[in-house]
Design a protein that fits this description.
Blueprint: H1 16-47, H2 62-72, H3 78-94, H4 99-116, H5 121-135, H6 141-153, H7 157-170, H8 178-187, H9 191-204, H10 208-221, H11 224-237, H12 241-257, H13 261-274, H14 279-291, H15 295-308, H16 312-324, H17 328-347, H18 353-363, H19 366-379, H20 383-395, H21 399-410, H22 421-433, H23 437-450, H24 458-468
Helix pairs in contact: 2-3, 3-4, 4-5, 4-6, 5-6, 6-7, 6-8, 7-8, 8-9, 9-10, 10-11, 11-12, 12-13, 12-14, 13-14, 14-15, 14-16, 15-16, 16-17, 17-18, 18-19, 18-20, 19-20, 20-21, 20-22, 21-22, 22-23, 23-24
Length: 480
């Protein structure tokens, strides 16, 4: 049984005799320590006219907490981010040539936009970061890192790579240049370079932020237990509630990908309790609750997440949940919301072609999906794009070509090490259409073993397809 991040196991209890010996030694050590301390204190006090304990330093304010988080590349709470933005806006008005403050302001805008899905913040972030480079053109890796993070938030991985590599060339020993580099390489499907960047990051820095980055890379390689262990340690060592909540949300996603509904739900709920602004965790609650048959609660969770963070992916998931319940009109509303949101995001420089292509493949025009995703693959050929393009080609009736992309997404030799139920399902359905029945059976079985609840619409289709191939699917425990 895998250990939950919420209830870490302690060391094994010592035997009674060992416990008594340990207690006697401990009491003796405490007594000696207390006696020595008392004697020292008495001698010291005799020399001083008055003894006052040193005053504790004041607790840092929210803007200081957010400043530390943003400069260290860790999640920050939205109220603290707002306080930091207000503080830096005042500073740059008073000191318009303060390049450091402009860089921090731009990075904070980008992070606020990412957390809220408010894409109007992205142009503001870009203006602030470029202003920082204008007033401080030399030795300004902070602004360059911010531009890389902004490009990642916009899903523009070629641009993210360009800025991240420039930051690394300026300051190769600065650890904060490596997380955006890892994101960029991952988005471009260059997993070898991403692993090398992670190795360098782990050489330069320890701590929860680095552990969380390692977990993401390990997850992409299919190393689930290693990813879970890194998130376990990151959660335990995180200092601020928002940071801990972010790592709990990622741990919940790992549990969900394994089909562990109850464990995923516990992690998502714990994340929301720590940080009520954790909208990704609320959407995660929606997934887990739907899989548990708690449909009304699932719909509410999705609706709240969308109201506060109108991410097109959440609209797609909610629409498919409505469709699985036979609520076609409610599903259409969400699908129209998705289309409108992608158009709105484009105005902020966000690339929404991946989620739009996924939607069009299953609920719109397969031909449109192929066109969108071919262009996306040429620009940034990541594993997620390979899977989506393969599925779109299948839906458009081009199964021979579709299989080539499905293989990229699922074969470790091509970099597709991530254990994804939906990727396996897509490949299995393509192989079934091509009358490759043995591999089709294997991949459909894998999909239902990895996560028997991966999609309210696709799971019944996978079960029916597997049954027609001569095997009635069971709900086995997810594999490692």
């Amino acid at each position: 049984m895998e250990t939950s991040l919420l209830t870490p196991d302690g060391p094994a209890a010592p035997r009674p005799a060992a416990r008594r010996r340990r207690r006697r030694v401990l009491l003796w050590a405490v007594a000696v320590s207390v006696a020595g301390a008392a004697a020292a204190a008495a001698g010291t006090l005799a020399l001083l006219p008055e003894h006052r304990p040193p005053a504790r330093p004041p607790a840092p304010g929210p803007e200081a907490v957010a400043r530390t988080a943003v400069t260290a590349g860790v999640p920050a709470a939205l109220p603290a981010l707002a306080a930091l933005i207000g503080e830096r806006e005042r500073l740059v008005r008073a000191r318009p040539r303060d390049g450091v403050s402009w860089a921090l302001l731009g990075t904070a805008y980008a992070e606020q936009g990412r957390q809220t899905a408010d894409v109007t913040l992205y142009p503001k972030a870009e203006r602030a970061l470029r202003r920082s480079l204008e007033v401080r053109p030399a030795a300004n890796p902070q602004a360059i890192e911010g531009l890389s993070a902004l490009a990642t938030a916009r899903r523009d991985f070629p641009e993210a790579k360009k800025w991240a590599e420039e930051a690394r060339s300026l300051a190769p020993r600065r650890w904060t240049v490596y997380p955006p580099l890892i994101d960029a390489y991952t988005g471009l499907g260059d997993y070898k370079a991403g692993r090398a960047a992670l190795d360098k990051l782990m050489e330069l820095r320890k701590g929860p932020a680095v552990m969380a980055r390692a977990a993401a890379v390990y997850r992409d390689r299919g190393w689930r237990e290693d990813a879970q262990a890194q998130l376990y340690d990151a959660t335990a060592k995180a200092r601020q509630p928002a940071e801990r909540a972010a790592y709990l949300e990622r741990a919940g996603q790992l549990a969900w990908e394994r089909g562990e509904r109850e464990d995923a739900l516990r992690h998502f709920q714990a994340a929301v309790r720590l940080d009520p602004y954790q909208r990704a965790a609320l959407a995660g609650e929606g997934r887990a609750l739907a899989a548990l048959g708690r449909t009304s609660e699932a719909l509410t969770a999705y609706q709240v997440a969308l109201a506060k963070q109108p991410d097109p992916q959440y609209a797609l998931e909610l629409g498919e949940l409505y469709e699985s319940l036979g609520l076609a009109q409610a599903a259409r509303v969400q699908y129209e919301t998705l289309r409108a949101r992608v158009r709105q995001d484009e105005a902020g420089g966000v690339d929404g072609d991946l989620v739009l292509g996924r939607f069009e493949a299953d609920h719109g025009s397969a031909r449109t999906a192929v066109d969108l995703l071919r262009a996306e693959w040429r620009r940034q050929p990541g594993i997620a794009v390979a899977d989506a393009l393969g599925w779109a080609l299948h839906r458009a009736g081009q199964d021979t070509e579709a299989l080539r992309f499905a293989a990229v997404a699922t074969d470790k030799a091509h970099g597709g090490g991530v254990l994804s139920a939906s990727y396996a399902y897509h490949r299995g359905m393509i192989e079934r259409e091509l009358e490759k029945y043995a591999p089709a059976r294997r991949h459909l079985r894998d999909a239902l073993r990895i996560n028997p609840y991966f999609s309210p619409l696709a799971v019944p289709v996978a079960q029916s397809a597997l049954a027609t191939l001569g095997e009635v699917p069971g709900r086995a425990a997810p594999g490692a």
